[in-house]
Amino acid sequence: MKKFIIILTTALALTSCGSDVKFNDPSFQGQKDNVLWRADVTNAAINGSTLTINAFRGLEIVSLVVPAPTRPVSSLDPFVYDLGTDDVTSDDIFASYSYTENGISLNYATAQGKGNGQVVINKYDPITKKLSGSFRFNAEYEGDNDLAPKNLNFQSGFIYNILVN
Fold this sequence. Notes:
- The chain is about 10% helix and about 55% strand.
- By secondary structure, the protein is mainly beta.
- It has one domain.
- Strands 1, 2, 3, 4, 5, 6, 7, 8, 9, 10 and 11 form an 11-stranded antiparallel β-sheet that branches.
- Strand 7 and strand 8 (about 105-110) form a beta hairpin.
- The radius of gyration is 21 Å and the shape is extended.
- The termini are far apart.
């Protein structure tokens, strides 16, 4: 009987251990208004001198647009872009969020002198075309619906190993 209990206990212990590990590689996530927001699909592309990162989750889209890295980037020498500044070059640096359902769209964005935030590219390898970094932003509502919140906040955002086309 003792052998049966030992074998049963060992069998239960071995079958209850599982490897339900899920890797988020690549990943784009952050805290949207203090709630975890993780993209289902992410893509990035360099067009001319502009890097555009798009993250999709259901009917939601987050876009980050910054100047494209011109060299390999490491965490010791990252590219840092401030959003919403009054700098003349800030027209090419912005973040946006949109949600569309049943013909109703909510659009939020930063722009020159509007909203604020920061995008940091702390890893980019032109050979593997993979990019990593962080972001945060406060975007302003761009519509006329009085019921929509006037601001949208993303904080503690991370970009990890996004493939750049």
